[in-house]
TrEMBL record:
It comes from Sphingobium chlorophenolicum. GO terms for molecular function: 3-dehydroquinate synthase activity; metal ion binding; nucleotide binding. It is an enzyme of class 4 (lyase). One of its GO terms (biological process) is chorismate biosynthetic process. Pfam families: DHQ_synthase (PF01761), DHQS_C (PF24621). The lineage of its organism: Bacteria, Pseudomonadati, Pseudomonadota, Alphaproteobacteria, Sphingomonadales. Residues 182-331 form the 3-dehydroquinate synthase C-terminal domain. This is 3-dehydroquinate synthase.
Length: 369
């Protein structure tokens, strides 16, 4: 078992990483159950695979469970399902002192966190992430959101959970594609500022994807420790430090938008392709060695992640992808910051990228040039 602390003064909380934690959740969560009850929000897929384990543990600890089950998929991060969730929580008479449990992947975690941030001007919530992507990234740091027609995660808030409880064994029921998509976020931490961790990914990433428990736990702990440190330094992305966590996301969100935020391209797959594009664009600008960009692309290709526009099933040209980027929530005074790299483990925020040049690069990259 490992415990990583997110240090945010009064908003500080622990990330608990423990194999089989879901079966011992009662010991971790019983103290958060006011009046002996917890509301657990999940989706239909996770409800079938994981909810019985959580319910059995909580009931064994004397905690009654009120499940709220939503549809699976990215489309659930919407106004419609936010309203549905809020109505359900109000019907269950959730009070400001109550804790709502988010059991699921990034969609459920983001939606429940946002609902908790606005319900009665703020109740509490607990993250119990069940996908690799959520375990290493979205459950930590307090970014909550829903999507809008204009783009992804455009409506939301910074709102920290009270606890993050991670059980790597939940990955046993995850489709291989979902695990691989989450692995892109693991690789991201190495590319940001930890070249030794990227080298570990190159050497040991196959073990993680094959289900090796030790490799999983090591990658999860190392990833959340890296994110907790950055969040502790820059909770609301004001200094620029936290912005480094968006590596691959500006490109990736545009790729997701082009594919309709659908199963055609999962979020982690978009991030993977986006990181490869960011490194190749950095090499094109002469910022990093071509060999570094090729190394990133080679690793993503080797593990089966998208690494270019074709493998991401993107049909738009460069101008079309730039049009998607213009809806990015990071736009400021008409400028879109980009995460670029001076090498592996040397990511930085650039605010002087010329979007027309990015469009030309994307067209050249599609053509293989």
């Amino acid at each position: 078992m490992a415990i990583v602390r997110v240090a945010l003064d009064a908003r500080s909380y622990d990330i608990v990483i423990e194999q089989g934690a879901l079966d011992r959740a009662g010991s971790w969560l019983a103290g958060y159950a006011r009046k002996g009850r917890l509301v657990v929000v999940t989706d239909a897929h996770v409800a079938a695979a994981q909810l019985p384990r959580l319910e059995a543990s909580l009931r064994g600890a004397g905690v009654a469970v009120e499940p709220v089950i939503l549809p699976p998929g990215e489309q659930t991060k919407s106004w419609r399902h936010l309203e549905e969730l809020l109505d359900a929580l109000l019907a269950l008479e959730i009070e400001r002192g109550d804790h709502v449990v988010a059991l699921g992947g990034g969609v459920i975690g983001d939606l429940v966190g946002f609902a908790a941030s606005i319900l009665k001007r703020g109740c509490h919530f607990i993250q119990v992430p069940t996908t690799l992507l959520a375990q290493v990234d979205s459950s930590v740091g307090g970014k909550t959101a829903i999507n809008a027609r204009a783009g992804k995660n455009l409506i939301g808030s910074f709102y920290q959970p009270a606890l993050v409880l991670i059980d790597p064994s939940t990955l046993d029921t995850l489709p291989v594609r979902e695990t691989r998509a989450g692995y892109a976020e693991v690789v991201k931490y190495g590319l940001i500022d930890d070249p030794d961790f990227f080298a570990w990914c190159e050497a040991e990433g196959d073990k993680l994807l094959a289900g090796d428990a030790q490799a999983r736990e090591y990658a999860i702990e190392r990833s959340v420790a890296a994110k907790a440190k950055i969040v502790g330094e820059d909770e609301r992305e004001t200094s620029g430090r936290r912005a480094l966590l968006n590596l691959g996301h500006t490109f990736g969100h545009a790729l997701e938008a082009d594919t309709g935020f659908s199963q055609t391209l999962l979020h982690g797959e978009g991030v993977g392709a986006g990181m490869a594009l960011a490194f190749r664009y950095s090499a094109r600008l002469g910022l990093c060695a071509v060999e570094d960009a090729e190394r990133v692309t080679a690793h993503l290709r080797a593990v089966g992640l998208p690494y270019d526009l074709a493998s991401a099933h993107v049909t738009a040209d460069g101008a079309g992808l730039i049009a998607h980027m213009l809806h990015d929530k990071k736009m400021a005074a008409g400028t879109l910051p980009f995460l670029l790299a001076r090498g592996i483990g040397r990511t930085f925020l650039s605010k002087d990228v010329v979007l027309e040049d990015v469009a030309a690069f994307l067209d050249e990259d599609r053509a293989g040039g």
